[in-house]
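Example for tutorial group B:
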C-alpha cells in the first residue's frame, strides 16, 4: 500500500492542495493537485499529474469549513484510495521569532502559532483553519507546519531592524519576510540547474496577488521587500505595499478612520484594486483599456523595479533575476516593463523568448541572467513534512 503525504496551502477563500506518494527511487511522486474553493459555492477540483481531471464536485452553499475539509479527506480515501496518508503538511504564513523550522502541530504548538495572529491578522487564521479542521476530523493523523518566514532567518540583524526604541525589537517588532517556501523552492531549482547559477547574486520576483522580492547570495536570503507584515513592499492585488507611516497616522488621527476599517482598507481595498478602481487581478487590468488600469500596472512595475534595485544594492550587484508566481510566470508585458526599468543594471531581454514564456528570457548580450521558473510551495511543504515525520 503506497504511503502518501497531503500538502495544504490555505489562502483567503481557497485551499490549494497536492497529494504525493512516497516513491522508492526518486522521493515524492505527485498523484493529485487541486483546490478547495471555500466561497459561496464550495467546490473541490483535482487533476492528476498528467492533467486528467479527477474530481470536480460542488457542495451545498454555506457548508462549514470543517465539512469541506472533510470532503477532501474522504475523496483522498475513496477516489484515490488504497493509500495510507502518513501526514498532512501546511503552509503557515507567520512563524514569528520562535518557529524557524518545520514543526509537529500539537495542540500547544497550534495555540502558540495562533498567538502570532496580531502579526498577520488576516493570514494566520486562514493558515490555521484547515489545521484545526483536520485535527478535529482525524486526530490520529500527524500534521506539520512549514513557515513562510523561516527561509529569511539568514538575513543580517542590521537588515531586520526598524529604527524604533530597542525594547520593541526585543518584543519581536522587526522585519521577517514572507513567501519563504516559494523562495526556497526557486533556490533549490537554481541549484539543480547549475551550482554556478545558484551562487549568483539573485533577485527572485514572486509576483502574484501577494507579491514580494527576495535577494539571494549563495542561495541564502539576505534581504526581502516584505517586513513585519505581509502588507509591506510591493504594490499587490489588494494590498498597498510600503507606505509612509504618516499616512496611517493621518487616517487615524485626522480622518477618524477606525483601526478595523484601516486594516480592511490596507489589506483588501488598496493595491491594484485601489489604484484602478476596477480589479485587483492583473489579467483583468491588462485586458482593460481604462487609463486607470494602465496607471495601476505602471505603478506595480515601477515599485517592483525600484525595490529590485534596492536589493541589488544590498548584494553589491545583480547577476540573476528570476520571475515566478502567477503574474511573474504568465505576464510577459510585466516582465518587459520591470526589466526595462532595470536596463541600467545590464538587463536586456530576448523579447521573442519572453513572449514565448521560455525559461531563459535574457538576450545573449545581457549582463544579467533573466529566467522564468514556476514555483511549487506544496512540494516544499511535503518534503519538510515527510522529513520531520520520519526523523
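The residue assignment follows.
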Amino acid at each position: 500500500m503506497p504511503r502518501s503525504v497531503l500538502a495544504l496551502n490555505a489562502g483567503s477563500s481557497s485551499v490549494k492542495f497536492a497529494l504525493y506518494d512516497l516513491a522508492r527511487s526518486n522521493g515524492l511522486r505527485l498523484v493529485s493537485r487541486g483546490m478547495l474553493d471555500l466561497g459561496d459555492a464550495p467546490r473541490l477540483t483535482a487533476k492528476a499529474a498528467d492533467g486528467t481531471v479527477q474530481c470536480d464536485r460542488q457542495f451545498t452553499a454555506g457548508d462549514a469549513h470543517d465539512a469541506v475539509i472533510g470532503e477532501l479527506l474522504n475523496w483522498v480515501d475513496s477516489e484515490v484510495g488504497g493509500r495510507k496518508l502518513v501526514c498532512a503538511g501546511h503552509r503557515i504564513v507567520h512563524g514569528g521569532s520562535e518557529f524557524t523550522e518545520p514543526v509537529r502541530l500539537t495542540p500547544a504548538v497550534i495555540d502558540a502559532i495562533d498567538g502570532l495572529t496580531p502579526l498577520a491578522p488576516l493570514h494566520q487564521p486562514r493558515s490555521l483553519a484547515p489545521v484545526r479542521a483536520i485535527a478535529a476530523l482525524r486526530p490520529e493523523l500527524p500534521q506539520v507546519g512549514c513557515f513562510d518566514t523561516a527561509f529569511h532567518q539568514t538575513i543580517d540583524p542590521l537588515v531586520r531592524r526598524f529604527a524604533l526604541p530597542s525594547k520593541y525589537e526585543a518584543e519581536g517588532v522587526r522585519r521577517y519576510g514572507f513567501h519563504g517556501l516559494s523562495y526556497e523552492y526557486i533556490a533549490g531549482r537554481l541549484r539543480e540547474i547549475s551550482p554556478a547559477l545558484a551562487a549568483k547574486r539573485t533577485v527572485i520576483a514572486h509576483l502574484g496577488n501577494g507579491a514580494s522580492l527576495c535577494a539571494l547570495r549563495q542561495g541564502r536570503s539576505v534581504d526581502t521587500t516584505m517586513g513585519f507584515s505581509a502588507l509591506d513592499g510591493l504594490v499587490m492585488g489588494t494590498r498597498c505595499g510600503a507606505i509612509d507611516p504618516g499616512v496611517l497616522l493621518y487616517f487615524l488621527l485626522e480622518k477618524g478612520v477606525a483601526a478595523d476599517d484601516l486594516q480592511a482598507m490596507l489589506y483588501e481595498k488598496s493595491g491594484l484594486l485601489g489604484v484602478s478602481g476596477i480589479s485587483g487581478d492583473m489579467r483583468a487590468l491588462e485586458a482593460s483599456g481604462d487609463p486607470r488600469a494602465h496607471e495601476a500596472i505602471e505603478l506595480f512595475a515601477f515599485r517592483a523595479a525600484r525595490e529590485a534595485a534596492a536589493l541589488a544594492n544590498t548584494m553589491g550587484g545583480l547577476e540573476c533575476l528570476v520571475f515566478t508566481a502567477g503574474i511573474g510566470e504568465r505576464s510577459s508585458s510585466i516582465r518587459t516593463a520591470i526589466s526595462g526599468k532595470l536596463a541600467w543594471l545590464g538587463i536586456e531581454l530576448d523579447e521573442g523568448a519572453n513572449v514565448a514564456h521560455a525559461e531563459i528570457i535574457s538576450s545573449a548580450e545581457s549582463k544579467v541572467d533573466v529566467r522564468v521558473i514556476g514555483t511549487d510551495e506544496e512540494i516544499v511543504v511535503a518534503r519538510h513534512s515527510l522529513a520531520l515525520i520520519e526523523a
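Residues 291-315 form the longest helix (25 residues). Compare this with the pattern of hydrophobic and polar residues in the output above.
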